[in-house]
């Protein structure tokens, strides 16, 4: 862990409920939370390694592996399901040749599920690198993916 992250660890470990903000800080800095950091994090927060790992893996936005250069999130909430997100998911997985949580072999795209962007009236919805797209169908997701290559 570099000095900047060590300083953040020292700061957040003294705050009530500081673990999640610390995880956000690490992920903002290096893109993911390496499992190798867990013993030091647990010690600093006076928690067990199981507890810090449990928090890390409970929240879908935290990653334990480096992500791809692009993050593609597909909503799987009820409104998007009612509007056909399963077809968007199938096409994305087929085109990228990965499942949810995976990163393409070339490191260009990480595919993640999410459970509501708050864009329900325009579902199915996806986000590519934080930019939200609504009324996505199989053709549109394929075009979005091809725009990355």
Topology of helices and strands:
Elements: H1 3-12, H2 19-30, H3 38-45, H4 49-58, E1 70-75, H5 78-82, H6 85-96, E2 109-114, E3 126-128, E4 131-133, H7 138-146
Parallel strand pairs: 1-2
Antiparallel strand pairs: 1-3, 3-4
Helix pairs in contact: 1-2, 3-4, 6-7
Q: What is the spatial order of strands in the main beta sheet?
A: 2-1-3-4
Mean pLDDT: 96
**pLDDT below 50 for ≥5 consecutive residues: which ranges?**
none
N-to-C terminal Cα separation, in Å? 33 Å
**What is the helix tally?**
7
Sheet with most strands: 4 strands, mixed
Radius of gyration: 17 Å
Give the DSSP E fraction (strand runs of 2 or more residues).
5-15%
Description:
- The protein has 149 residues and is of the alpha+beta class.
- The protein has helices at residues 3-12, 19-30, 38-45, 49-58, 78-82, 85-96, 138-146, and strands spanning 70-75, 109-114, 126-128, 131-133.
- Strand 3 (126-128) and strand 4 form a beta hairpin.
- The longest helix is centred in the N-terminal third of the chain and has 12 residues, at 19-30.
């Amino acid at each position: 862990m570099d000095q900047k992250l060590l300083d953040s660890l020292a700061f957040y470990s003294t705050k009530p409920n500081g673990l999640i903000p610390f995880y956000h800080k690490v992920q903002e800095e290096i893109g993911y939370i390496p499992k190798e950091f867990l013993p030091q994090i647990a010690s600093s927060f006076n928690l067990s390694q199981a507890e810090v790992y449990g928090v890390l893996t409970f929240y879908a936005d935290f990653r334990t592996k480096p992500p791809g250069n692009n993050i593609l999130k597909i909503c799987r909430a009820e409104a998007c399901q009612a509007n056909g997100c399963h077809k968007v998911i199938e096409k994305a997985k087929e085109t990228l040749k990965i499942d949810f949580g995976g990163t393409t072999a070339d490191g260009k795209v990480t595919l993640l599920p999410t459970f509501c962007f708050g864009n329900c009236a325009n579902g199915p919805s996806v986000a590519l690198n934080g930019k939200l797209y609504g009324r996505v169908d199989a053709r549109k997701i394929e075009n979005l993916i091809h725009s990355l290559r």
